[in-house]
Design goal:
The chain has helices spanning 40-47, 81-86, 91-105, 110-129, 135-145, 150-153, 162-175, 192-203, 216-222, 243-280, 286-310, 370-377, 412-415, 423-432, 449-463, 479-491, 503-509, 527-534; strands at residues 2-11, 14-24, 29-33, 55-59, 65-68, 180-184, 208-212, 225-229, 236-240, 331-338, 347-354, 359-363, 385-390, 396-399, 467-471, 495-499, 513-516, 521-524. Helix 3 packs antiparallel against helix 4 and helix 16 runs parallel beside helix 17. It is flat, with a radius of gyration of 28 Å. It has 541 residues and is an alpha/beta fold.
């Protein structure tokens, strides 16, 4: 049982939770939803003891907790993947301690033996809880099912790609045999075949699973409850059913609120008219003046309440417009070769070009070099052979998957600074990305991944580039924002080169051609071929 009782938390003047309550059962599969910055990830950090509540309590007994963060970082980057995975269950450590106890028993006195035997019993119980005798077989099966290549097991953690890091970290969490799993955007870097296995695994998991995800299909396939974190009211509400059921119920609730708002707007008009008449009345009509003053107080309260409710309906707004027309051939990749140190070649004489105004998709399993190719094109990495040639008329903007182009030590406003815009203009643009008032002065390092993604999108907008190079642009974004940017990329008149694991987004923006890695084959877009790469192992779903 996970129970929150009147939890409260604030960061400075920003309220996250205000006397919020919820209860989740021992084996509930729960999706945690809310707009970016509502406090979804913060809830996990509270459960992990990384954040302390200002008030109330969040209790879940002595249950073991497994955690998959959004942004994967390894403490020891020199450790091998195999060593890291094995540490998901502390079997080796517990067995080593058990062996030491056997040695100590032979020289211990009666009192010491009693304590050692008690410790031995506790360790044995822990080992039973981790299914120690079968643990390695479980791990090997997970490695196989999650398609972690044998060669990957000997790699250092620091040498992994973004997709490989996510897959390895996810495998370790699943192996941990935790009683509560906390998963923060678990599908961000997963290929479709791995996602299919994970979906089946979590549906059958014998414990509590809490998932923060903007992947609607993934949530619908797994969860039976939705925990909604309301950024406006700072409360939490539990809904029975999957995400689609929640959205339907929530839409009905919002419709009722809209009706109340309409009524409130009518009331405001009546009050405004009365106050105006009262002010125009003669000074001798004291009763009317007094009534006007009373109505003015009510009017101010009604307007304040309406402004607060309006926040519920604010969404990201953007309009992508290139400052000049795209060239006929904006980009050429000629005989490109590349490999990381001591690793096989990712590409060998890869060649292709982009046609002006087309939508070009790069597909392939994790680890084949999709993100690496974009970094080579943008000059972040340098090829071992071949070249990348931009047309002189090409203006390029790059959206990085891991948002590494943002300076976390600078404010939101400083990150989007441009000589082409005044501060006032930039603040107006940032307002369209839900950064209003003092929020523009917040340091980017303090933002949630979803908020960081909005900053990166804002930077993309103001460049007015005619070639957009996008690496997983829908990661970290809520479904409403995904839909907004999908519509804008669809209507954009420039050229788009994109890596994406989001089939709805790919369909929405109108892909024309596809580059298949590692083969380097270029084909016309086909929904069937896309399905091959995104819906492998459909029997798992």
């Amino acid at each position: 049982m996970i129970r929150a009782n009147k939890i409260s938390l604030a960061f400075g003047t920003e309220t996250i939770y205000d006397d919020a309550d919820f209860t989740l059962g021992d084996k509930d599969k729960t999706g945690i939803v809310g707009v970016n910055g509502a406090g979804k990830t913060t809830l996990f950090k509270v459960m992990l003891g990384q954040k302390e509540l200002d008030g109330g309590s969040l209790a879940f007994g002595s249950a073991r907790v497994g955690y998959l963060p959004q942004e994967i970082e390894f403490d020891d980057r020199q450790k091998t993947v195999w060593e890291y995975l094995c540490e998901g269950r502390p079997v080796r450590r517990l067995e080593a301690r058990l062996n030491r106890i056997y040695d100590e028993l032979s020289v211990a006195d009666e009192r010491e033996q009693t304590a050692l035997l008690a410790e031995m019993s506790n360790i044995q119980s822990e080992l039973d809880g981790y299914d120690a005798y079968n643990a390695e077989n479980v791990l090997l099966e997970l490695i196989f099912d999650m398609q972690i290549d044998d060669m990957l097991l000997d790699m250092r953690l620091g040498d992994l790609s973004g997709g490989q890091k996510s897959k390895v970290a996810f495998a370790r969490v699943l192996y941990s045999n935790a009683q509560i799993l906390l998963l923060d955007e678990p599908t961000n870097h997963l290929d479709a075949s791995t996602k299919g296995f994970v979906t089946k695994f979590l549906k059958e998991y014998n414990g509590s699973v809490l998932i923060i995800s903007h992947d609607v299909a993934f949530l619908n396939a797994i969860v039976g409850k939705i925990l909604f974190v309301n950024k406006t009211t700072h409360k939490t509400t539990v809904y029975d059913g999957n995400y689609t059921t929640f959205k339907r119920r929530y839409a009905q609730e919002q419709l009722l609120k809209e009706l109340r708002i309409a009524q409130q707007e009518q009331e405001i008009k009546k009050l405004s008219d009365f106050v105006l008449k009262a002010k125009q009345a003669s000074r001798t009509n004291h009763n009317l003046k007094r009534m006007g003053q009373d109505r003015e107080v009510k009017l101010a309260k009604a307007i304040a309440a309406l402004e607060k409710r309006d926040k519920l309906y604010k969404h990201v707004k953007m309009r992508l417009e290139p400052k000049r027309e795209s060239a006929k051939i904006p980009l050429e990749v000629k005989n490109l070769s590349f490999n990381y140190a001591d690793r096989p070649k990712l590409y060998d004489k890869l060649s292709f070009n982009l046609v002006g105004n087309e939508r070009f998709l790069i597909v392939g399993e994790n680890g084949v070099g999709k993100s690496t190719l974009l970094k080579l094109i943008m000059g972040v990495l340098h090829p071992t052979g071949g070249e990348v040639v931009f047309n002189p008329k090409t203006d390029t903007a790059y959206y990085a998957q891991e948002l590494e182009l943002l300076d976390e030590n600078k404010t939101v406003l400083e990150n989007v600074e441009s000589a082409s815009y005044t501060d006032l203009q930039l603040r107006n643009v940032l307002g369209n990305f839900l950064f209003n008032g003092d929020a523009v002065f917040k340091r980017v390092g303090l933002l949630s991944p979803g908020e960081k993604a909005r900053v990166a999108l804002c930077k993309l907008l103001i460049t007015k580039a005619n070639l957009l190079i996008l690496d997983e642009p829908t990661n970290h974004l809520d479904p409403d924002t995904q839909a907004v940017i999908g519509e804008n990329f669809r209507d954009y008149t420039g050229t788009i080169l994109v890596v994406s694991h989001n089939p709805e987004f790919v369909e929405q923006i109108g892909i024309t051609r596809m580059l298949i890695l590692p083969e380097g084959k270029i084909v016309d877009y086909s929904k069937e071929l896309l399905s091959y790469y995104y819906i492998l192992n459909t029997d798992f779903v």
